[in-house]
Structures are given as C-alpha cells and as structure tokens.
Write a sequence for this structure.
C-alpha cells in the first residue's frame, strides 16, 4: 500500500493522539483510530482494523512496561477473561472477512460499501451506549464516598468460581468472566478496537474493580487480544507495513507520556475524561455517516 505525504503526516498525528489515550485510559485507542483512519485518511475498513490492531499491540506493550512497576494490573483476572477473549477475537475476525466480500447496497439512492458502512454504524452504537452509561454513573456517584464497589457479575451464581484480590467482592463466576471476555474479543476482531473501550467500564461496573486497577488490567487484556488478532489479520493481508510505521512513530511517543499522566489521575477523573473522548469519537463517526447517507 503506497502512502502520500498527507497520509503519512496524518497517520503520525493520529498515532500520537491514540498513544496518549492508551497510556491515560488503558483502552488501546482503537475506538478512535479505526474510524479516524477510515474517515480522515480514507483507508479501507479491513486494512484500518488490521493495521490499527498492530499499533495497539505495540502501544499496549509499552504501557504495560510502565504499569508493571505501579502494581495496577490484576494478572489472574486478566488471564481468566482472556480465555474467552481469544475465542471472541477469532470469531469477530471471521465475520469481518465475510463482510469484506459482501456486495454493495443502496441507502437513500447512495451506493454504500458494506464493510465501511457497517463498521461505522457499529462504532456509533457502541460508543453511544458507553458514553450514556458512564455519564449516568458519574453523576449518580459524584460526591459520594464509595468504600466498596460490587460489580453486576457478583450476582451471577454459576460455578466454578475464582477469587480475585483486587475486588471488594472477590468471588466471581468463571463462566461469567469468559462471556465478558468473548464479547470484548468479538469487538476486537470485528472492529479493531482492542476491546479496552468496552473492558474499562466493564471491569469497573460489571466486575467491580477500582478504576485505577481496571486501567492496568484492561491494558493487559488489550495486549493479549491484540496479539491474537494481529496474527490473524497479518495472515489474511489486512496489515499495511508503511502505514504501520507512521502510526507507530506517533503512537509510541504518545503512549509513553500518556501513561505518566494516567498514573497521576484519580478514579473519578479517569471516568469523566474518558467520557469526553468517547463523545468526540461519536461526533466524528456520526457526521461521516450523515454525509454518506444523505
């Protein structure tokens, strides 16, 4: 894939911004990078997903090295969820490959590429749900002293169970965690989002992990899911080497500084700032869909 100067510069800037988000929030940044590559630079959806995941793998590797020393990663919890996540990655990748071969269709008299249109619609739905839920939770808990956090999955009574020291309610169903990981993995393989944009709020609200710990655990999960996805995407030719180099140039720098910022933020600040980023992504994708449709 040949790159123009404008695309090279644009890819470097996008990589820098996404790298900062990876370090601060532990989300991988794919929720912004994949649509940005498609919308701003005009990169085909499957290539945007595959190359994006390769960048996320590199960024999350650097972010983990910074966080290992801070004791903000629950390795046992991450590895348990990762079992389901790996299966989800392979499933999501398979569906994306099927979608790539789907015929074009017409909406309001305009012909649409199936994979591009579907991916953008999926991003709007996912990001809107996450933003609404997190705003609601932030307002509900603002100003309240929260000594114990019990996640939704604590009420899921299906053995076997495991105990996790980073949780206020340490006993959780393994089956429930595998389902959570599978869903996040499907998002990774299908949309190239690394899974962190779903996993960060899921670890806080479903699993019950404190926000500071959730960021580190999410980052390890992003790394595992991205590794599996990159192997698959590379095998089917969905990774662009030249594009990857420019994204990495900005991404690794952004991740280094973003991680230093993230380690100094409190739980409530992490949740609030994360919402602002998600809203910005919704506006970008929503505007592109309107232009494509009408």
């Amino acid at each position: 894939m040949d790159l123009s100067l404008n695309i090279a510069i644009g890819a470097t800037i996008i990589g820098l911004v996404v790298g900062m988000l990876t370090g601060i929030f532990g989300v991988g940044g794919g929720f912004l990078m994949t649509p940005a590559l498609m919308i701003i630079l005009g990169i085909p959806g499957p290539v945007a997903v595959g190359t994006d995941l390769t960048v996320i793998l590199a960024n999350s590797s650097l972010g983990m090295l910074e966080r290992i020393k801070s004791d903000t990663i629950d390795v046992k919890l991450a590895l348990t969820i990762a079992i389901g996540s790996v299966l989800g990655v392979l499933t999501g990748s398979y569906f994306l490959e099927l979608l790539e071969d789907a015929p074009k269709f017409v909406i309001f008299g305009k012909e649409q590429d199936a994979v591009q249109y579907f991916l953008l619609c999926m991003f709007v739905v996912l990001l809107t749900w996450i933003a609404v839920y997190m705003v609601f939770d932030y307002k509900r808990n603002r100003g309240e002293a929260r000594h114990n956090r019990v996640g939704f999955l604590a009420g899921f009574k299906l053995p076997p169970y495991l105990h996790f020291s980073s949780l206020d309610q340490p006993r959780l169903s393994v089956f429930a965690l595998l389902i959570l990981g599978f869903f996040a993995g499907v998002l990774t393989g299908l949309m190239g989002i690394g899974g962190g944009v779903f996993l960060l709020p899921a670890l806080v609200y479903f699993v019950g992990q404190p926000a500071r710990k959730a960021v580190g655990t999410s980052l390890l999960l992003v790394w595992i899911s991205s590794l599996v996805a990159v192997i698959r995407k590379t095998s089917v030719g969905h990774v662009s080497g030249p594009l990857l180099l420019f994204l990495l140039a900005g991404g690794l720098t952004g991740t280094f500084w973003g991680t230093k910022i993230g380690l100094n933020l409190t739980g409530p600040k992490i949740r609030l700032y994360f919402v602002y980023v998600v809203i910005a992504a919704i506006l970008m994708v929503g505007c592109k869909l309107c232009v494509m449709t009408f």
